[in-house]
Amino acid sequence: MKIIVKNKEWDIIKELDGTINKTLLWQLTDAGVEIPNACRVGMCSACMCHIESGWEHLEKSFKWEASFPLWDTEIMTCIWGLKSEDDWEIVLKTVY
Question: Given CA atoms 57, 58, 59, 63 in this order, what sign does their dihedral have?
Fold first, then answer.
């Protein structure tokens, strides 16, 4: 599966192959994508991204639950991961 990351201007900044068993934040930082983060447990919202497509392929509570409500288009990359490694893509847009 493919993870496509866009910046806040909607320009594609990175495409990478995704994997299960790792949070999105770990995968993105391992691939060289700079995502702000502080707590890594869903409390600070620094790593929040908007999801453009592929919502149904995400595991919403990969590790913990976010400590505050999220809009339907927001995800916390530090606690969310991928459900499977099937052939599909998700598109994320960074907030900062």
Answer: positive
